Amino acid sequence: SHLLIWDFRQLVKPAAVLKCNHEILSFRFNPNNQNLVIGGCITGQVALWDISAVLASQQKKNRNNQEDDNDDKKSAPIGPILTSSIDHSHKKPVAEIMWLPANTQINHRGQLVASEHLDGQQYQFVTISGDGIVLVWDTRYEQIAADELKHIGRAKHVPVEKSGSK
Predict the structure, then answer these.
(1) Of 7, 82, 98, 104, which residue is 20 to 30 A from 123 by alpha carbon distance?
(2) What pLDDT band is residue 158 in, cutting at 50, 70 and 90?
């Protein structure tokens, strides 16, 4: 499956071609960072693309008004930088994707994050599927895995503090 991104100034060929191993049913650009694209697959998985390199080369080419000899090389399909695990994804096709507003983040317990941890960027999105499950995803997965964002999630090996007496 491929997603084609078009530049209306150059309608002869797409500005970028995003490829995925599975059919994409829905996709969304990040409202704060137009270089991030997420797509929901027919398998229930989620794919994440970073198109910043392609868009930067397109802008440079447009500024210089030149044709590039390596144009075929640059227009090669871009694979996702991340695809979710089939075991931790939806069981049915992803029907809809929505980015959470910049003033809203959800932690690993499903609670809203306090406003002192918000920086005005949109990192999380929600997916809905026919399996009756709503999943919240975060694009800062590397920082969460490194346990740098304790207000969002914790690593599996970190014990949870238990309240109460011994």
Answers:
(1) 7
(2) very low
